[in-house]
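task queued by scheduler; priority normal; single chain, no ligands, no partner chains; default sampling; output format set to structure tokens
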Amino acid sequence: MIPVLVLGAGVGVGLWLLLTWALPPRPALSDRLAHASTRAPAAPIVVPRDVAWVVAWGRIFVPALRMLGLPGTTTANDLRITGRGTDTHLAAKALLAAAGLLAPWLLQALLTLGGLSLGAEAPLLAGLVLAALGFLAPDLDVRAKATRLRRDFRSALSAFLDLVWITLAGGAGVEAALTDAAAVGTGVAFSKIRRALRAAQLTRTMPWGTLRRLGEELDIAELSELAASISLAGTEGARVRASLAAKAQALRTHQVTDAEAEAQSATERMALPVTLLFLGFLGFIAYPAVVQVLNGL
């Protein structure tokens, strides 16, 4: 009965997805009026890109996953910093889950053609486990990449702070110091900062406002704090050179601390294989004696 129930549930979910894709729900009139009366949000500074073939293959699953509230706020921030589109991420989750669910049944079909059979329970359980792993794999991959990119961004941000501080010490204005410092550096972090400053020039807004939005979009608190400090210099004429130098030093100290913690963690992980090897060696030496004792009983 269990395979029949699971297959019936799968057919029901598939029909529901087809109906959701073919007949999307219509929003209420009050929602439309509220949407028309509200101001349009500012365009995001970081625009992720979608992979066309992934979205094309998994397009049918994307609306249903969005109705479930996916992706979450944290995952959305991770997608922005990695440059992966939301539709691509959701489509990849659905495709990997479907591939994991169908792979054991394909293997079962090949074994049946060869004269072997594992029954219905084993492919069913293996398919559910692989589907769950495939559904979670894109989230884990995006989280790992986002963590690495944020660490690299903070490293570049400390250099950017030093450049801004030097330019301010040379007598340049706040906006000129930000533009000149961003133009010197290379890499992903500096390209995103230049994009934010260019957006401020095109929209005729203050650059520290776009830097704050960039920090919020990428979930980098240090960039938002930098924007708040620079805004004091730009709006109230406060002296921020000492503050920028202190922030740069704090970022470098934090990077050194993280590097030491990561090295310590790697050292602790290296102790586990050595311990397992030592235990295996002891078992190999003690095996003849244990066998002799057991045979003598």
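post-processing summary
- Residues 151 and 212 are 18 Å apart (CA to CA).
- The radius of gyration is 28 Å.
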